[in-house]
Amino acid sequence: MSRKIEYKKDYKSFYVPKTSPDMIDITEMPFIMVSGTGDPNGAEFARVTEALYSVAYAVKMSYKSDDVPVGYYEYTVFPLEGIWDLVDKSKPATEKNNLKYTMMLRQPDFLTDELFAKFVEQIKKKKTNPYLEQLIFKKVTDGLSCQMMHIGSFDDEPESFARMEVFCKENGYVRTDKTHREIYLSDPRKTETSKMKTVLRFPVKSVD
What we know:
The chain has 208 residues and is of the alpha+beta class. It has 2 domains: 16-27 and 142-208, Regulatory factor, effector binding domain (Multidrug-efflux Transporter 1 Regulator Bmrr, Chain A, Alpha-Beta Barrel), CATH 3.20.80.10; 28-140, Regulatory factor, effector binding domain (Multidrug-efflux Transporter 1 Regulator Bmrr, Chain A), CATH 3.20.80.10. Helix content is 26%, strand content 29%. Strands 1, 2, 3, 4, 5, 6, 7, 8 and 9 form a 9-stranded antiparallel β-sheet that branches. The protein is globular, with a radius of gyration of 18 Å. Residues 21-205 form the GyrI-like small molecule binding domain. This is GyrI-like small molecule binding domain-containing protein.
């Protein structure tokens, strides 16, 4: 088995950006994902993340099975990510019940559509979770983006997004979509709010 892939080392530019805004071109990556709406602090959101992690860990631990996936390599499970939007765009982003999201976990390159379907069926035999039926496997390319590391409360993210908007304007870029991506590097159950790390990212294009 080859060297273990660790996202913070092998994909540092994607997952450990600076605490100031910068530009990056995000290449194609495979994800398992599921979409929903509502308060991310609620019980339904917990079921969403449970479904994602159940399949992600089944993929990771598949090397212990009698049918090891072709091309399997050891790796650290990637962090949870989310693309966020508003159901009703006339309402403020602070109304958490109005949030719309697609939560996802990046997957290793050896995962295929067939393997994904097999792992989902395996988990469905062990757990009852309606979101397992809604999981999809898809390759995503974010392309040119502005990103930075936000340190602190999720509620303080607007300040970081404002810095990113200013950076784009000063450097000849414009945001192309009001949705944004968040990558969660800290467990809020175990980390002081002031020390939580979240990668913030949104798509941009050059105005030239």
